[in-house]
Amino acid sequence: MWRCCSLSAMAVSLLAASPACAVKAYVSNEKSNTVSVIDTESWTVTATIKVGQRPRGIEFTRDGKFVMVAVGDDDTIQLIDTASERVVDTLPSGPDPELFVQDSTGKILYVANENDNTVTIIDLDKRIRIGDVQVGVEPEGMALSPDGKILINTSETTNMAHFIDTGTRQIVANVLVDSRPRFAEFKRDSSELWISSEIGGTVAIIDPAKHTVTGKITFEIPGLRREAIQPVGIGMTKDGKTAFIALGPANRIAIVDGTSHQVTKYLLVGQRVWHMAFTPDEKYLLVTNGVSNDVSIIDVSAQKVIKTIQVGELPWGITIAQP
Amino acid sequence: MIRALVGALGLALLATGALADDPVEIGIGYLHRAKVKPTLSLMTTPAENDGVAGARLAIEDNNTTGRFLNQHFTLDEKRLKDEDDPAAAASELAGRGIGLILVDLPADGLLKAADAVRDRGVVVFDVGAIDDRLREEDCRGNVIHTAPTRSMLADGLAQYLVWKQWKRWLLVTGSHPEDKLYADALRRSAKRFGAKIVEERVFEDTGGARRTDSGVTQIQRQMPVFTQQAAAYDVLVAADESEVFASYLPYRTWDPRPIAGSAGLIPSSWDAAHDQWGAIQMQNRFLKLNARRMTALDMQAWTAARMIGEAASRVKSNVAKAMLDFLKGPDFSLAAFKGQRLTLRDWNLQLRQPILLADGRMVVSVSPQEGFLHQVSELDTLGVDRPETKCKLK
Question: ipTM of the predicted structure?
Fold first, then answer.
């Protein structure tokens, strides 16, 4: 998951001039109940932070001061202080939080609660729950439209993307997709919404204005059985030209042309690849490999895996610091 | 690769205005026996709502989805006593306009029910009977099977035992017909995957109560004696669907050996301890609704009712024939917390599914095992495959 997006080119050059601002990636390790911190210059793990039970969804706050990590089996979201690299507070997330998304101001957090078919809305300043929305069975994927007006939630057993008006907090449309939709991602220009279906083995392209499926990306890898191709995490470059899709137990990242929606290349990574995050300059993409306990580093322009870093057990989510 | 989805446009969008209309009603019938089967262990005694509780959860799940699709699902449960006629019960449901019936009855009862309503276009879901013959010589074009077959269960177990290099089996079979069928399936699996049955013994059911106040004193003497002087073996495989002896075997064999089959390491479609692949959500939902743990029969019934929900949401209809066509077609796949999509074998309408191997406390492994390959689906390494089938669907 990557949301550190509002970075201007100027900020990037400033960052390069200031080594004190080293970009860090935080990886949630689902099994070992830890978060690994990776320095993206030296590509080494610099810290391992103890967190609650079953950490999965993970994201920086907009001000970069905290990393939020959903610890599903403790029914909360913990806040890691990035300065002290310790858990300092929790958020009232509702039961079994998995994935979440914050608005552009960093004031409102929307959380998918897998266990009770709801999306919880949290005020991040006051750290209190301010509302919820009833959705389908097993809510999971979360995304906000670039203008912040529409919240997308996918429900894994209902097989839908729910369109929620963030103003009224009412569902305004439901779009059926293939089995077990897990992740949602908007193109930066709002022209397309992509939804991955893990069991269906496809990524649906949705017209967010018309609420219709306009196309579907399918995957074929010679020598791999169809059941093993299970799309989950999606990462798209800011210009919307290239997308990276994690294919789970197919152990590959598919590179997809953002315009033609054709798969152009498959990159072999680690076992059961889940989620991903770009470095702010988009030079590198880091992907978590759940079963092989490591993170693969992809050189985005060369479209090559350049390095693998060992982290904790069953790495799941990843977020990268916004300087 | 992108596929233009002209047809999907209609499916994809739900006009919110439609919600003002009355919902489309989808009634599902459920036929099962009134009596529960006695078991050796109190732990495995089925609840009075075993199976139907899974269907009820699926109805809730379907109705959550149905809120967005203006569809409403209901369950109509009928318990049959021994003297009740399954054909009459199925006809009665069909007479009330129910086009989809989940059936948990022994093979003959299931066939009677299915044949009675076949001409009325009713689709029957076999959620309980594991007999291979229902998918082979006695297969029916209007019967979908969510229960695995004996041969799928035996193959799932055999693949693991072979992977573990426990290839020498002592096969102990009960004296009832279904025990013999399970033993046949185990013999077939041994041959298929390279295990060797070094010796076979039969445990005669001489009758008697399954629970007595004297308890284990006699059993502790009987079981070692029964298993002594066997040819050298790695694992004792027991075929005892009738619950007469298998659960007495662990820790009591003459030679210190693991037990598998009807006790010890047991193959099944689901286990209360299964928590991988999102299954924990399912287990939590089930526990909340029914205040007990979920069994394989609950899962098989949940799966059948969820298949109906899935078909209804895709074809936007409550017509059984349209749903059956969708379920048989290439676009159907079901997410059922087993790590991969479940689909139907189009030659006999058996649901492909991984087989869990559990020891009563934990899931030990899930078959198919790595390395058992297949040209179509690795799930087809479990059970009778297309080239061997005797089924001609009508």
Answer: 0.81
